[in-house]
Design goal:
The complex is a heterodimer. By secondary structure, chain A is mostly beta strands. In chain A, 0% of the residues lie in helices and 53% in strands. Chain A has strands spanning 5-7, 10-13, 19-24, 31-38, 42-50, 53-57, 64-68, 74-78, 87-94, 103-104, 108-112. Chain B is built from no helices and eleven strands. Classes of the chains: A mainly beta, B mainly beta.
Chain lengths: 113, 114
């Protein structure tokens, strides 16, 4: 158990809808990272927050957005969903916002029908 | 453009033998490399890392070797155990100030047969 929690575990929705994925980092960690893992794409970095502020951006679509709240939990919002958005979404955290040793949550499996 | 490449999607090894997982990278600015292990239905778990100032790092049964001139790193698992069966991801990062981020390979699925 990494100490990072993600909810929900599974999400099934329809095209055009909007969903919110939630992540609680390990106790004391200030940085949160979001990743997308599609079937044949490996892990794609989406975005990083550090202590409430956006730190780095990866291949995040404009339809997607994220934020980190004062209690350090983070939410990833996915809107106007398309079939191709079906994937595993992972959240990771670490203390100082450096890329080494990120601790991953169990992921949210999103299925868009 | 895949900056971190794991060219073998899968690898099968007999229990007790050595497993060698390979990773190639194209960006010469990468200065930190990590290996993560992932079991089905779980998030990746950090395994071992190496800085570009070293060419080897060892932790128990796991050793990572870095060849900077070849832009190649490898993970050796000796001896391999059935519990090592998982997907192994190689990741790399470059020092770009606050914009440092990990670039991941596509993973190699290791099967260790009893």
């Amino acid at each position: 158990d990494s100490g990072v929690t993600q909810t929900p575990k599974h999400l099934i929705t329809a095209t055009g809808q909007r969903v919110t994925l939630r992540c609680s980092p390990r106790s004391g960690d200030l940085s949160v990272y979001w990743y997308q893992q599609s079937l044949d794409q490996g892990l794609q970095f989406l975005i990083q927050y550090y202590n409430g502020e956006e730190r780095a951006k990866g291949n995040i679509l404009e339809r997607f957005s994220a934020q980190q709240f004062p209690d350090l939990h983070s939410e990833l919002n996915l809107s106007s969903l398309e079939l191709g958005d079906s994937a595993l979404y992972f959240c990771a955290s670490n203390l100082r916002g450096r890329t080494d040793t990120q601790y991953f949550g169990p992921g949210t499996r999103l299925t868009v029908l | 453009d895949q900056q971190v490449k794991q060219n073998s999607p899968s690898l099968s090894v007999q229990e007790g033998r050595i497993s060698i997982l390979n990773c190639d990278y194209t960006n010469s600015m990468f200065d930190y490399f990590l290996w993560y292990k992932k079991y089905p239905a779980e998030g990746p778990t950090f395994l071992i890392s190496i800085s570009s100032i070293k060419d080897k790092n060892e932790d128990g049964r796991f050793t990572v070797f870095l060849n900077k001139s070849a832009k190649h790193l490898s993970l050796h698992i000796v001896p391999s155990q059935p519990g090592d069966s998982a997907v192994y991801f190689c990741a790399a990062s470059a020092n770009a100030g606050n914009n440092r981020k990990l670039i991941w390979g596509l993973g190699t699925s290791l099967a260790v047969n009893p």
